[in-house]
Write a structure and sequence with these properties.
Layout lengths: L7 E5 L4 H13 L3 E6 L19 E5 L5 H11 L3 E4 L1
Parallel strand pairs: 1-2, 1-4, 2-3
Length: about 90
């Protein structure tokens, strides 16, 4: 795929049931880099992401999206092209 078509997608709630399915699909069906932001509360389950954890296009960050300082750092670090908020 053309380097210009490679995107960085920041996804919130990526350790939940729907989020983890979307993370796996994005990694398997696109050339996008996926940044998974999840607080890991009651619904988060990192075991559902085992198939992508070693992929160099997948990054997990345990963070509360209400923490504006931490989120600003993540945005500066990863510079996402798109955001999926679940």
């Amino acid at each position: 795929m053309n380097q210009a078509n490679k995107k960085t997608i920041l996804l919130t709630g990526g350790a939940g049931f729907i989020g983890s399915a979307l993370v796996r699909q994005l990694i398997s069906e696109t050339d996008s880099t996926v940044i998974n932001i999840d607080k890991l509360t009651y619904a988060g389950n990192l075991a559902s992401l085992e198939s992508v954890t070693r992929n160099n296009r997948y990054h997990f960050e345990q963070c509360d999206i209400c923490d504006d300082v931490a989120m600003a750092k993540l945005f500066a670090q990863y510079r996402p092209d798109g955001i999926v908020h679940l």
